[in-house]
Amino acid sequence: MAKITHNNFLDTVNEVFTDAKQQGIMHLYAEGEDFSGRTIGVGGQNLFHFGTTGYLGLEQDQRLKEAAIEAIRKYGTQFPLSKSYISNPLYAELEAKLTEMYQNPIIITKNSTLGHMGVIPNAVSDQDAIILDHQVHWSVQSAAKVLKNRSVPIDMIRHNNLNMLEDKIKRLSDKHKRIWYMADGIYSMYGDFAPLKDLKALCLKYPQLHLYIDDVHGMSWTGKNGTGYALGELGELSEHMLVFGTLSKTFGASGAVLACSNEKMYHEIKTFGGPLTFSAQLEPASVAAAIASADIHLSEEIYELQNDLNERVMYFNILLQNTNLPLIDQNHSPVFFIGTVMPKTGYNFVSRLMKEGFFVNLGIFPAVPVKNTGVRLTISRHNEKPEIESLEEAMVYHFPKALEDTHTNLERVCKAFKMEPKTEKQDKIKVPTELQVKIYSRIEQLDKQLWNTTVGKRGVYDWEGLQFLESVFSGNRKPEHNWTFKYIQICDAKGQPILLTFLTLGLWKDDMLAKESASKQIENQRETMPYHLTSRVLSMGSLFTEGEHWYLNEQHHLKQEALGQLIKTTETLEQELQAKMVVLRDFDADTPWHDYFQGQGFVRVKMPNACHVDLKEGITMETFVQQLSSRNRRHIRKEILAHEDNLHIEVLQQADTSQLHQIAQLYHNVHKNNLGLNTFTFPQKLFASMSEHPNWEFITIRLRENPLKIIGVMLCYNNNNTVYVPAFVGLDYNYVLEYHVYRQLLYQTINRAIALQIPKIDFGMTAAFEKRKLGAVVEEKFAYLQTADNYTLELIGILE
């Protein structure tokens, strides 16, 4: 019944990138009439360039430039034919030189992204399976997902977790011919390495295991003849391995190269490799530049260039060792990542460095988890030691100031990246003296009138409702039925409330908002592993409630400071309660706090639409219907009123044992049928507790011919006669279509609220189309998520 849009990921990425663009950090244009590689023009400044992926500086080598120019003179700007028909005159020479470099058959591709799209569907058969490292490059993941159309299973492991990889190999080995593990040789954000020697040993242990390594960031600056990190570690390329290198980035030209020692597979890929067949070939200038670069790679000069770069990299590493800068992974690659945690801290730090004369990159979601934002910088042969040293000095000076500007500290950064601070004592984030922050564990500890006149004016979370929820979601056998409640109250020095809210810690299904197709796959696995892909989540509100779960005094001059303390308090609770994710919900699309939340490391995702009905004083059901459109009035007459004579409608304040059993079963029918909003069921005692509570009642529908059988039920909560909340529905699907039972329940809910003279109905978050027919106002709602781990997001992404 839940209608959920599934462009959340793209919308979220667009918002994050737009925010970074507005901060002057991304989507910039280089300026100047020439480019040396050592500096780059940005915003009227000439900055030292610490963001290149041309680590050896070959893109500025005069030999490559002259070769490209001469090729254009001879062959033109392009050779507009598919390689399947004929290659430009320079291709044969380049292929020969690359074959000599790799000592294996090679295939040249337009770029690595198109290369993966051409190679992976060819190399992987319908009898195979794929396992992805969750940090493998997007282009590999995207190409692999195409194989879902051929029913090739795709799984994922946490980054470099070989124990997890081995477990998945064991589970897949009986059913599949080959098992492909796809990873990067060197990962582009943190500059860390794949454990290739261990992977090679795993291949010997499991002959079905094949490796597919994207080594574009390991190319040229390391390895024999500059063939990269992967071949350097593997030693030789067995028939169980495919390795991608690049002719761009450090190689200095354009294109990509696949090395494949399996003769049969090599010919199949080269003969017909999708984009390799139909895409345009490399331009003559690119091929000529690549030939010139290959000549360098085949000479002793490549080792001189590698050593020259390595000396600069080691120099920077030594400088960083003597600082408190949080370098996320120290190694000998030319890629460095300094953690900032929050995007707004990253924006501040990058802006400061740019003003100081240094160009660096921001590492941001989705390349890294949003809570693992940081500054990604690279060392190249263009960088001289004096400017490397100046960069280090500028970072040491500006990093603590960026932390201070954004109200955070080094301890917070280190915790997010699971690092030990280099110094024993860290500055604490202080609560402003004019604020009082109090945390409670039970609603009884808060003033009832204060709560009910602020947060508790809505939903099932008035003072009495939360007392009910605390009772229901405690002392249960299953972990998903036990929640931890936390109430946060922030006041000024005079005790005046500025912000109040409540949080719950509970076990959530990670695919709660995923596509039904993904949830179906995951639910199949949960039949034997009931807690597969579940996480402890600290959420504003709860999975039982919906609506505006906080009170914020928008007129108070300390509202911004209070909100900051909410974020810091939530972060502390997240660590204490060992939650994997923090969720703030449910916010309107135009919330004034969007930029603030995003800067604090939260990403916005679309929730199901919320619906409500406002009822005028003195309104009757007849006058309510009359104010609807003629089309909706016809809908009511035809699909609702026409069946009333066959139905028995009754409101139960209390239900007997038989009725409670039926109500529970009807609820479970709907829950099981609603994978679009995939949650755990509620504890069985919920329904009996509702029957015993004065604020709950059941609107039931029965057939007159069988008065003991309930075919539909709405579970409704009365919030102090101010809001009527049809919280959950139960249906017998054998009767839904014939008697329009769900629409009948919606109609009867409005009828009941009018009878009770309650001015508002909170109709909940699903089936907006049906509720709109009955006059409901539909509103977009959003949640803000924060997590330090993208694994689950990536895994569910490959299942959708």
UniProtKB/TrEMBL annotation:
Entry keywords, A to Z: Aminotransferase, Transferase
InterPro entries named among the record's database cross-references: Acyl_CoA_acyltransferase, Aminotransferase_I/II_large, AON_synthase_class-II, BioF2-like_GNAT_dom, PyrdxlP-dep_Trfase, PyrdxlP-dep_Trfase_major, PyrdxlP-dep_Trfase_small
Domain BioF2-like acetyltransferase: 631-771
Gene Ontology molecular functions: pyridoxal phosphate binding; transaminase activity
Highest taxon of the lineage: Bacteria
Start and end residues of each Aminotransferase class I/classII large domain: 50-384
Cofactor: pyridoxal 5'-phosphate
Keyword Transferase attributed: yes
Extent of the signal sequence: none
Claim: Transferase is one of the keywords in the record: yes
Gene3D superfamilies linked to this entry: 3.40.630.30, Aspartate Aminotransferase, domain 1, Type I PLP-dependent aspartate aminotransferase-like (Major domain)
Protein name: Aminotransferase class I/II-fold pyridoxal phosphate-dependent enzyme
Organism: Allotamlana fucoidanivorans
